[in-house]
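Tutorial handout. Part one gives the primary structure; part two gives the three-dimensional structure as tokens.
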Amino acid sequence: LDRRCVFILQIPRLQLPAMPSEDGGVDLLAEAEALGLGADEGEEDLGGDDEDVGGGEDLSGDPPGHDAAAAEPRFAVGQVVRVLKESGLYADCTIVAADQTEMGPMYAVRFEDGFVQSLVPEAELSV
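Part two.
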């Protein structure tokens, strides 16, 4: 005999009258305001206004020069170099790959502990 219990739980929903817009459709902004979801004066302005297109601070940095893609890698695969780490200290490593990219030469380097770091810009390497 197969004995299964089935429970049916009905959760009531909050129903608000639809707020008509000028064109006869539903005014979603009016409904959001009625629910307390309107703009709050104390909220932080995160930007994104349509009026400010192109007027904000550019955080992308300077673009590479048009000749960056043409630059040949200075360091060869197998060469031992030093890389500038985030801590400001240099660490010895070996070049395991060198690629010519639109951003200039990029390298993959292997540190003495065996860790391989990819996309290392040439400016962070020295002999």
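Part three, for discussion. Residues 28-34 form the longest helix (7 residues). The chain is about 5% helix and 25% strand.
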